[in-house]
# Entry
Amino acid sequence: MNKILIANRGEIAVRIIRACREMGIATVAVYSECDRTALHVRLADEAVAIGPNAPRDSYLRIDRIIEAARTTGADGVHPGYGFLAENEDFAAAVAEAGLTFIGPTAEAVALMGSKTAAREVAARAGVPVVPGTEQPLAPDVPDADIAAIAATIGYPLLVKAVAGGGGKGMRTVSDPADLSNAVRAARSEAGSAFGDAAVYLERKLTRPRHIEVQLLADHHGTVLPFVERECSIQRRHQKVVEETPSLAVTPELRRAITAAAAAVARAAGYRNAGTIEFLLDESGQFYFLEMNTRLQVEHPITEQVTGLDLVRWQIRIARGERLDLDPERLLTPVGHAIECRIYAEDPDNGFLPSPGTILQLRAPAGPGIRDDSGATAGLDVPIFYDPMISKLIAWAEDRPTAIARMRRALREYVVTGIKTTVPFFDWLFVQPEFERAAFHTTYLDEVLKQRNGQPFAQADAAQQDLAVIAAAIQVAAGGAPPAAAVAAPKAPMRAVQTWKTRARAEGLR
Amino acid sequence: MQYDVDVNGQRRQVTIQRTTTGFVVQLDGKEWQVDATRVNPHAWSLLVGHASHEVALAPDPASGQLAVHVDGIPVGVGINSRRRWGRTDHAAAGSGPQRLTAPMPGKVVRILVQVGDTVQARQPLAVIEAMKMENELRAVRGGVVTDVQAKEGQSVDAGALLLIVSPA
# Structure
């Protein structure tokens, strides 16, 4: 491979461009209209416009992406995560165009993309799955039959979309009387979100942890699992903080869970990078949850504790190279790594998205800090895509030091013009439950509910005084009055306001 | 120069004078000597005595205030209490009708209340979908819904009026 097209945007496109450049491979970015000035476009060797802002008109257009690869002479395609990364038609289209897809085969994507088929693969590999139905519920099953099946699984249970993800098409049922309504609601949500209304039933474990195992598989039969990642800090089924290793995983459990992950990958005939997700219950029993047939958002923490570059290995594997790594190295973490996903959201207003123009941005740096970001000052955070602006990763020799380092780095992070989840992380990392790693997948939702909107970062009296002093100095100094360079310079009202403010400030001088 | 400022729900008066070395700032009877040096158009390095603070300022279009970042904490400061377009002064001041507006462009997924409904503080009023997520918009204070402008399924721009909650 001499030239790789990256079928993605944002921080992950930047991440892949960096790996390619280090390997001497040329890069092609694709972009939608609003991403013309995005960092991935600026850093790539070549860039091709693929359509309007809505994902279905650009980043999900298989035909335009293949065409862009042809036009630029790219011979490989990296899908990143999200968008087309787990779309079997895309993997097939790339292969049919004679290009190398940097990921698994279309067959493996299809197989593991169906939750019920994936559970079957895991069971065949001798790996425990959460008790539930083996087949999707047929659309015409009478309510009484569903109730009978549910009774054998036990309550509370989950109704889950076969094609699901991210908590969509999922319902919790604690009372048998709510079952038929929940099935109807989940079917309708799954139908509109995934174009597939099929659902199945699964027992809901109480207070489970989410533990996952990264693995690499080459084209020569070698499958290597990595030390686990702990991803139990979630908000509305979305991971918020990930760390490795997990405090809940003993050396014996690590042997067992990583061996189980490798067995599932082998049974699926899997190639390239993938992740097996498990639920770990309070008794230490783990259950296969699902497989992600792509690079994960949280892959950097695994890189930090093993010293390996997963994107580089994805490309090497796709080229047919052998995984000649020492398996013990991948299972022996050096130190501890934590990642937090920094979003353009207002944590003090129900985590509402906060799109807009980033006025200034200073990312933290220094020992053990890695900031994987696609954001720069002057850039718009568009409303069309996931609002993650950065992944902040802290590595240190042990967990307490990694937490201290993360807190230090968060304090250095300056983002203005939009709101971010930085104040929320400041709060989270001093919670006793976090310090003791005494959490589970619903911990964060529960504690957020209890807080009931109480602000995360409250300035004390001295900080409020300083804020007033700074605001007064800014206005008195006049050079850049409050409304200058306002978030949306296109809005004529704001331009008028800028003039008024400037005039007022100058009059005061 | 004297300004009225609103911070943390309080109206305060600040007086500021330039000196040869910086500024003298008076606030509620206290006085500070501040060495202020601009580090970029939106940030200052302040030396208050020997205490060093980096402060970043940005206008917050949603509230019409300045977002002043002190020690990583954003503090909303309204200076001179100038009225800005799109601003909901009454809501901010804690009286009068609350105008629930869309905080970002998106699609109205659900309107959870009707005209005449009595609502509690923090009760969800509407759901807007944007950036792949459904977002609940809640009441700031309790009251009675007196107007519903938005319709389910409608696309709205940031700042669009969705509904009004008047004091009960």
Summary: Chain B touches chain A through 60 residues (CB under 8 Å). Chain B is about 5% helix and 60% strand.
